[in-house]
Amino acid sequence: MALPKTELHLHIEGSLEPEMMFALAQKNGVALPYADVDAVRAAYQFDSLQSFLDLYYAGASVLITEQDFYDLTWAYVLRAHADNIVHTEIFYDPQTHTARGIAFAVPLAGIRRALADAFTQFGMTSKLILCFLRHLSEADGFATLEQAMPYLAQIDGVGLDSSELGHPPSKFAALFARCAELGLPAVAHAGEEGPAAYIWEALDLLKSTRIDHGVRCTEDAALVARLAADRVPLTVCPLSNLKLCVVDDLAAHNLRTLLNAGLCAMVNSDDPAYFGGYLNTNLLACRAALDLNKAEIVQLILNSFEASWLSAEQKAAWQ
Ligand code: ES4
Ligand code: ZN
């Protein structure tokens, strides 16, 4: 897994390792409902997306200062560099922080400073995607966009994450239309726990340029044909799917089916601190469970570059 690669589906708050969670809790005087790091790891047993999100939002409460967000992001950069990720497009959830009284500018500045250092030290390029929380209202999303307005030069696109079922993309059609007017490209989580219909909505109503997860697309042949025809990328997260019981067994994952259907699918780590591994661990687990051959691994990595927001020149430089 030494090949240069990109990562396109990574929630920076989901890279918060228990050790850092504890250290920041202590420094910031935030109470955690766990005795120690081992107790946190032992709690990472999920039966659904929601059971994970409850812990993920609780964990994020230890992040207070700009330096905390820097340290979080820098720790991810080091792990990404170790996996030979040369370009990463990361999500962050500003509403998780502004809802706790953290100023909008604080997470953005810390994350951006670490990404700038990643470029200086390793030549690692990056994009930053502001994700709206779909369990909150569209009005809350519009208020967040308003807060983002002075900083749009630092935001490369918008996404949609959090609790999927009951919160279809259509709920955010007006918000994403406004983002498009502002020149912000969109992505959206769809077809993780939600049905194929949510993927259609993400494409047609949100103008999503990629689908995050999207694994339930195989329930709708017409949708697979659309995704293949338009080369709409699917940012698949296999260990996430396993941990959140989207699949019972990695050997039953439809990753190869997606590739064989001609889809631009690739592997990502999603929330690596919670799901048992960073990008190379995901690729190795898939190779073992699905018996992927070298050509299939290379295809996944080529797809990660194709699906990225790197310029044509940057992509060509990595071929
Ligand atoms: C997430 Cl795995 C997943 N799905 C939806 N929203 C998320 N936020 C962080 N991880
Ligand atoms: Zn995700």
TrEMBL record:
<feature type="binding site">
    <location>
        <position position="271"/>
    </location>
    <ligand>
        <name>substrate</name>
    </ligand>
</feature>
<feature type="binding site">
    <location>
        <position position="189"/>
    </location>
    <ligand>
        <name>Zn(2+)</name>
    </ligand>
</feature>
<comment type="similarity">
    <text>Belongs to the metallo-dependent hydrolases superfamily. Adenosine and AMP deaminases family. Adenine deaminase type 2 subfamily.</text>
</comment>
<feature type="binding site">
    <location>
        <position position="11"/>
    </location>
    <ligand>
        <name>Zn(2+)</name>
    </ligand>
</feature>
<dbReference type="InterPro" id="IPR032466">
    <property type="entry name" value="Metal_Hydrolase"/>
</dbReference>
<dbReference type="InterPro" id="IPR006330">
    <property type="entry name" value="Ado/ade_deaminase"/>
</dbReference>
<keyword id="KW-0862">Zinc</keyword>
<keyword id="KW-0546">Nucleotide metabolism</keyword>
<comment type="function">
    <text>Catalyzes the hydrolytic deamination of adenine to hypoxanthine. Plays an important role in the purine salvage pathway and in nitrogen catabolism.</text>
</comment>
<keyword id="KW-0479">Metal-binding</keyword>
<keyword id="KW-0378">Hydrolase</keyword>
<feature type="binding site">
    <location>
        <position position="270"/>
    </location>
    <ligand>
        <name>Zn(2+)</name>
    </ligand>
</feature>
<feature type="domain" description="Adenosine deaminase">
    <location>
        <begin position="4"/>
        <end position="319"/>
    </location>
</feature>
<feature type="active site" description="Proton donor">
    <location>
        <position position="192"/>
    </location>
</feature>
<protein>
    <recommendedName>
        <fullName>Adenine deaminase</fullName>
        <ecNumber>3.5.4.2</ecNumber>
    </recommendedName>
</protein>
<dbReference type="Pfam" id="PF00962">
    <property type="entry name" value="A_deaminase"/>
</dbReference>
<dbReference type="GO" id="GO:0016787">
    <property type="term" value="F:hydrolase activity"/>
</dbReference>
<feature type="binding site">
    <location>
        <position position="9"/>
    </location>
    <ligand>
        <name>Zn(2+)</name>
    </ligand>
</feature>
<dbReference type="InterPro" id="IPR028892">
    <property type="entry name" value="ADE"/>
</dbReference>
<dbReference type="InterPro" id="IPR001365">
    <property type="entry name" value="A_deaminase_dom"/>
</dbReference>
<feature type="site" description="Important for catalytic activity">
    <location>
        <position position="213"/>
    </location>
</feature>
